[in-house]
Specification:
The chain is mostly beta strands and 224 residues long. The chain contains two helices and 14 strands, in the order E-E-E-E-E-E-E-E-E-E-H-E-E-H-E-E. Strand 5 and strand 6 form a beta hairpin.
Length: 224
């Protein structure tokens, strides 16, 4: 299995999610060829189990990583896994689609649902992913110019269960727009070389102006 590995936090703990190429049922002669990207990743993240909403919990400015993709036409197929393992995982398959109007490869409706008893208790958690990748030509290491990746972590339970929720996540924030508890948010920059100057971004609060993963056709909420 071809894997795209990202050093990032997918749950409230130090989880690492892995994107792998989705298996394709195609004839042997038409088997797509994967390609690998080596890039420098900058991460900004907030996690509601560690500090109040309004400032970053963690910033990683030193992360070289590599990724593998499998293109088929104007689509890059991906598959997301979690470590540590979660339960009742659905929605792992995600795709980047090339959009001629923007000439970008845009992540389409990335949405994963799971349960993680150790960190969240019996509640269902949904990760929303949005973002894009920019290539100057056919996707490859040589043509990669930039990537931006957004991640929201929501715990879906009634607002009335605040006491129970805070037994697991002290600083969970009730979001009336999403009708769920916001417990995590991350932004990832992906660059072919170390950016100079380094990326810097203020926390995008307060909640009244906070970006949300809706509608799904918005892929670059902060114009990064």
């Amino acid at each position: 299995m071809i894997k795209l590995r990202k050093k990032t936090t997918a749950t409230l703990l130090t989880a690492i999610f892995t994107i792998t190429a989705m298996a394709l049922l195609v004839p042997l002669m038409a088997k797509p060829e994967s390609f690998t990207l080596d890039y420098y990743q900058t991460q900004f993240q907030w996690r509601g189990n560690l500090n109040e909403f309004g400032s970053w919990t963690y910033t990683n400015m030193e992360s070289w990583t590599d990724s593998e993709y499998t293109p088929t036409g104007n689509v890059l197929h991906t598959y997301i896994e979690y470590s540590p393992l979660v339960e009742d995982l659905t929605g792992e398959s995600n795709i980047y689609v090339h959009v001629k109007r923007t000439d970008l490869w845009i992540l389409r409706e990335g949405k994963i649902t799971y349960k993680y008893e150790l960190g969240y208790g019996p509640y269902t958690v949904v990760n929303f992913f949005r973002g894009y990748m920019d290539f100057s030509d056919t996707p490859s290491q040589d043509t990669f110019t930039k990537g931006v990746f957004y991640q929201w972590v929501y715990l879906f339970a009634p607002e009335s269960e605040e006491v129970q929720i805070r037994e697991y996540i002290d600083y969970a924030v009730w979001d009336p727009v999403m009708e769920g508890w916001l417990i995590g948010f991350s932004i990832y920059y992906q660059d072919p070389q170390i950016p100079s100057p380094q990326h810097s971004i203020a926390f995008p609060g307060p909640l009244t102006s906070f970006p949300r993963p809706v509608p799904a056709n918005i892929y670059n909420h902060l114009d990064l």
